[in-house]
Specification:
heterotrimer; A alpha+beta; B alpha/beta; C mainly alpha; B: alpha/beta; Rossmann fold; six-stranded mixed sheet; 10 strands; about 35% helix; C: mainly alpha; two-stranded antiparallel ribbon; 2 strands; flat
């Protein structure tokens, strides 16, 4: 090995080695830069940013969050992009303002932001709240709004729970046989009653340039006054924002809301994949290392398996589409689901095919890691077991495999990390931009292998490239990307740690 | 308990011969090759029951290869070609009715480097017994204690049977391996340079153990160390380049070798 | 003496153990052979799916049709399909070329620095860090490249191009300054750790270059570099172009090339390099004259594997290239690679149709190419290891 050696006089070497040192620095800088970008933008999205009231030279006013600044195309000045929301008033949520035209900037404490189910957010002032109990104005209106929103949240949760857990199963049961009509009617009545309590109430709002709108209260999800919030309040709002992102489903064509179905889909798919890949990968590795005749053929097969790790993932996707989806899936449909044809059941992309495709893709990872672990077990351990009268399988299961367990685990973790980040093959074998049904529910057989599913990686691609307003969806994409990267980083770090631990424990050299 | 009948040594013959009835292992015309190159050529010798027999010879003379052939460890290696016969108590060990796992239980082996399994001391000793199955916990405890006592290790480890075997010293590990092998009650114990990786005191303990064990089973010892062979063995075989050169009582072989080759080797080494 | 023996436990269920051993061995063999066959069947399956294309005379696709300069799958109404694979192959090669142009110098530089100069402890930390870089999902890198980097570079083209000159110059400058430092300072900033302490300096350079670039652009190109390029060199500018793809995909292939090249370099027996240094060569000279020539096959195979990875990478190209099937040399315009085409078009292609089979052909091409490249690299590496062992043994 060429070590760093003694610190020899570097003067004679000239400056060229510094290009090499610089490449290390630059590579690290790129990695750090990417991670920082994702962390800052991904986490920052949930922080309630202050709302600026901008007064222009000509007296016009607008309220918005500054997003970025750019040079004006023709003249020397700069212009600034504000997120001004209020799509129902403006037709757009973005406003460009020339910096030179800004006369005054302030942050009044009474500016509110409303998150609504229609038209996106509203930014402006709250004038009054009208409800059955009468009309309140000013500060009192804000307090009343806060309590009312809390009530609304509980009512909505109750309604959604009823719909998902009572009504939907009943409806599905009715599709097959009758008998639950009364129950269903009762549940529906309860939902209608809740709905009635949710609706009602009106907000009188005013944008900063003086236009007034009436906002039905039932469309308002949340309200906050960013300029009046204290840092602890902001932190709490940030935490609840992160939680909603992780626990809720997407809204508004994936540009708002959370990514829970995508997290669920990713995890489920990866779990299924590891259930398939672990036994087969380990079996193949044991076969290659312990059972097969160690000749030229085995060596060739071993190299071939290793090389499959370098085959592009899209090729596995093509294979999965051709063999699993059209081949096996098509045949399954012809044999068992003829009543559904021509609409395919298994003959289209789905959870099962995606898991199998990714299992095939990650097989080399598991095989190689397990083989390395097996090679690390010293031969005298094997001979020791055999000399005590163990059969080969007893030797393997009682001595060799327990010693190989960390290596296998490393392999599976690396496989999971790889699979969690792969998107290209999924585009061919079963991912969906918006899956109406999660692949797991209370209906027999509970796990629906033929359904399509959402995936974090594909969610990023879809929202970033097929969404309507990319600029508006961007913060969410950042957050999703950060989440995906975090998951993969944690998995990889675990694998690295395990491997390191393993090397420290068995200092023995591999046999090959 | 049968006793070895007095060995006959024909005049002019350098190979001692035993009455087959008093022999535990009979090797006849054994030739063994790795790939193309032969490691043992036409080897014929008999190993008497309940005695210590030592194989000595220069490195690469085939003595370890011979030892490994006695419990068919070469089965693991696809490149080994073997002809001739080995009989254990009159039964060909390569015969179709012989189960290799059972053969290896009957012919235990201790290797050059101590190789305890990465489990507790107790589990190491119980390993072979558990493989046989159908054994009660109480019985298992008794046999583990007996095996550790037989290997002169009980007093040192009785308080930490549950701790890892890898925490023991090298000498203790080697005695643990012997205990582990004794626990399955082998008829023959093969020792492949069992003390070469150990310090002098551990070596003495192992040698004492070997002498004690011969009342119970047949021992075959491969060693580089000729003093060791002289100290512990009853009979010694000298191998060179895969051939058996001389085989006799240890006393005769070391003090009055019949062949010049043997004498050269012994004096060269002993000097 | 040994104590009296406890009664020998008669082994039971021997036949059961034997049966279990036979069955389990059979299972392992069946599973192992099955998995290996299934995995190796990928290539065969792809070939079988492609075969009718050429065997079937009625498919209307021959070598001549495939060698057209237009790829037009006919998915738009009223468009007759044209299946020229040329632009796709071109796009794949172009993307890989720019990625390698960016990644190879960086990865090899990093490998040289860490193999020759870094203290072993630091090196053992750097390797897993760069492994993390490799683990970055392509979709995230592609997103950042296509949606963040591309618009940004479009606005700051002059600054971005200036970095190509500024960064190496800054590195050399740092080296020059370091040799002029007093010994105490040099001790505190050891050369082996330069990979770390150069980072803030480079970050500073990047910031400065970007800050100065508008001024530079105004001075040299009349304030509009893109317009200048268009007018003087006739280069059109697409926001998502080969440079962006090269940068993003370069990021993805750096770690792979680095790891293999570092293995090759640090595996060179120390006696070789030391021999040269004993004759008065500096470390850098012994690198060029002795170590690099000895490790050249390994470094070559590292680059080959990087090329394989770059050819097959899908998401980055898909998201950062614009996916226009153009055949231009210009690095400022986009392209469409085979992998991205498969990802976009295969879900819509009719199974068994010409379009479907052609996309399978593209997949087969990628498969065969990467498989061959990897095998070649593996063989080269095996030879190299053998040679090192001999050289190390002789010394």
């Amino acid at each position: 090995m060429i070590g760093p050696g003694r610190v020899r006089l570097a003067r004679g070497e000239g400056p060229w080695p510094w290009l090499a040192a610089g490449s290390v620095a630059l590579s690290l800088l790129l990695l750090v830069g990417l991670l920082t970008l994702l962390a800052v933008r991904g986490m920052g999205h949930f922080w309630p940013s202050p709302l600026t009231l901008v007064t222009l030279e000509d007296g016009r006013q607008l309220a918005g969050q500054a997003v970025r600044e750019e040079r004006l195309p023709d003249s020397a000045g700069r212009e600034r992009l504000y997120l001004t929301a209020n799509r129902d008033l403006e037709g757009d949520i973005w406003t460009w303002v020339a910096v030179a035209e800004i006369a005054e900037e302030s942050r009044p404490r009474d500016l509110v932001v409303l998150e609504r189910t229609r038209w996106g957010s509203f930014q402006g002032r709250l004038l009054a709240l009208e409800s059955d109990e009468g009309r309140v104005e000013g500060e009192a209106a804000w307090a009343a709004l806060e309590t009312r929103l809390e009530t609304l949240a509980t009512l909505r949760a109750e309604r959604d729970r009823l719909r998902d857990e009572v009504v939907m199963p009943l409806v599905r049961r009715l599709e097959r046989d009758s008998g639950a009509e009364a129950e269903l009617a009762h549940a529906n009545a309860r939902i209608r009653e809740l709905q009635a309590r949710i609706s009602g109430g009106m907000l009188l709002l005013e944008s900063v340039d003086g236009r007034r709108i009436e906002q039905p209260l039932e469309q308002v999800l949340r309200a906050w006054r960013p300029n009046a919030m204290s840092p602890p309040q902001k932190l709490a709002a940030w935490a609840s924002g992160v939680w909603r992102f992780l626990s809720e489903g997407p809204r508004a064509a994936n540009t708002a809301g959370g990514v829970w179905p995508a997290i669920f889909g990713t995890v489920l798919m990866v779990l299924l994949m590891s259930v398939v890949v672990t036994p087969f990968g380990v079996l193949a590795a044991i076969y290659l290392n312990e059972v097969a005749h160690q000749g030229r053929l085995t060596r060739l097969v071993r190299i071939a398996v290793r090389n499959l790790a370098g085959v592009p993932s899209i090729v596995y996707g093509v294979f999965g589409l051709g063999v699993f989806v059209y081949g096996i899936g098509g045949s399954l449909d012809e044999w068992f689901f003829t009543d559904q044809l021509p609409s395919p059941t298994f003959g289209t992309g789905g959870l099962l095919w995606a898991s199998l495709t990714l299992a095939l893709l990650t097989l080399p990872v598991v095989i190689v890691a397990t083989e390395e672990g097996l090679a690390r077990v010293p031969d005298h351990q094997r001979e020791g077991a055999l000399a005590l009268g163990a059969t080969r399988v007893e030797m393997l299961t009682r001595v060799v495999l327990p010693m190989t367990a960390p290596a296998m685990l490393t392999g599976v973790i690396l496989a999971v990390a790889r699979a969690a980040g792969e998107v290209a093959p999924l585009m061919l074998v079963g991912v969906a931009k918006l899956a109406p049904q999660v692949p797991v529910d209370g209906e027999f057989p509970f796990l629906h292998l033929e359904r399509k599913f959402m995936h974090l990686g594909y969610h990023i691609y879809d929202v970033a490239f097929h969404g309507g307003d990319v600029e508006a969806a961007l913060p969410l994409v950042y957050a999703t990307a950060l989440l995906l990267v975090l998951v993969i980083l944690v998995l990889n770090l675990t694998a690295i740690f395990l491997r390191h631990h393993l090397r420290a424990r068995h200092g023995a050299l591999p046999r090959r | 308990m049968s006793v070895v009948s007095s060995p006959r040594l024909a005049a002019g013959n350098s190979i001692i011969d035993f009455d087959p009835a008093s022999c535990c292992l009979e090797i006849e015309g054994l030739t063994l090759a790795y790939g193309g190159s032969p490691a043992l050529r036409e080897l014929t010798l008999r190993v008497p029951r309940q005695r210590v027999t030592a194989f000595i010879g220069p490195s690469g003379c085939g003595k370890s290869t011979l030892l490994r052939a006695l419990n068919r460890l070469h089965d693991l290696n696809d490149e080994v070609r073997l002809s001739g016969s080995i009989r254990l108590e009159g039964q060909d060990i390569h015969g179709p009715e012989v189960e290799v796992a059972e053969l290896r239980r009957r012919v235990g082996m201790v290797f050059q480097a101590p190789n305890p399994f990465p489990m507790s001391i107790y589990d190491n000793v119980a390993f072979g017994l558990r493989l046989q199955g159908g054994i009660r916990k109480r019985q298992l405890d008794d046999i583990v204690e007996w095996a550790l006592e037989s290997a002169a290790l009980w007093d040192e480890v009785k308080d930490r049977l549950k701790s890892s075997a890898w925490a023991l010293s090298g000498g203790q590990q080697q005695r643990l391996v012997i205990a582990r092998t004794l626990a399955v009650r082998p008829e023959v114990l093969l020792l492949d340079e069992p003390a070469s990786a150990l310090d002098p005191i551990s070596t003495l303990k192992i040698e004492e153990l070997i002498r004690n064990l011969k009342s119970q089973l047949t021992l075959v010892l491969v060693t580089h160390n000729m003093q060791q062979a002289a100290r512990v063995s009853d009979y010694t075989a000298f191998l060179q380049e895969g051939e058996l050169v001389e085989y006799g009582t240890t006393d005769t072989l070391f003090t009055n070798p019949r062949l010049a080759r043997t004498e050269n080797y012994i004096t060269g080494r002993m000097a | 003496m040994i104590d009296p023996l406890p009664p020998r436990v008669e082994p039971r269920h021997q036949w059961r153990r034997r049966l279990r051993d036979r069955l389990a061995t059979l299972l392992i063999t069946a599973g192992g052979v099955g998995v290996v066959v299934a995995v190796l069947a990928i290539g065969i399956f792809l070939a079988l799916e492609v075969a009718p294309l050429f065997l079937d005379a009625g498919s209307g696709v021959g070598w001549r049709e495939l060698w057209q300069p237009r790829w037009q799958p006919g998915t738009l109404p009223g468009e007759s399909p044209l299946y020229g694979l040329q632009p796709l192959a071109w796009g794949t090669l172009k993307a890989a070329f720019w990625a390698l142009l960016f990644a190879v110098p960086l990865a090899l530089g990093a490998a040289i620095h860490s193999a020759l100069y870094m203290p072993p402890r630091l090196r053992s930390r750097l390797k897993p860090t760069l492994e993390l870089m490799e683990a970055m999902p392509g979709v995230v890198v592609g997103f950042v490249a296509g949606l963040v980097l591309a618009p940004w570079v479009e606005r700051h083209l002059a600054g971005a191009l200036a970095l190509v000159a500024v960064l190496p110059a800054g590195m050399l400058l740092a080296g020059l300054a370091w040799t002029r430092l007093p010994a105490a300072w040099r001790h505190r900033l050891p050369q082996g750790w330069a990979g770390l302490w150069l980072m803030p300096w480079l970050a500073l350079l990047v910031a400065t270059a970007l800050w100065l670039s508008p001024w530079l652009e105004r001075l040299l190109f009349g304030g509009d570099l893109r317009g200048w390029l268009e007018a003087h060199l006739g280069l059109g500018y697409a926001s998502r172009n080969a440079l962006i793809v090269g940068l993003a995909m370069g990021f993805a292939v750096i770690p792979g090339i680095y790891a293999l090249a570092e293995d090759a370099l640090s595996g060179v027996p120390a006696s070789l390099g030391e021999g040269a240094q004993a004759l008065g060569a500096t470390r850098w000279q012994s690198l060029w004259k002795v170590v690099l020539p000895a490790a050249a096959p390994g470094v070559f195979s590292a680059v080959m594997i990087g090329a394989g990875r770059a050819m097959g990478e899908t998401m980055i190209v898909l998201m950062a290239s614009g996916n226009t099937a153009l055949m231009t040399l210009s690095p400022l315009e986009g392209m469409r690679s085979m992998a991205a085409t498969i990802a976009i078009e295969l879900p819509e292609a009719v199974p068994g149709g010409v379009h479907y089979r052609l996309l399978f052909l593209a997949a087969l091409t990628l498969f065969v190419f990467t498989f061959l490249v990897n095998t070649l690299a593996e063989v080269v590496r095996a030879r190299l290891r053998h040679r090192y062992r001999r050289l190390g043994g002789m010394a």
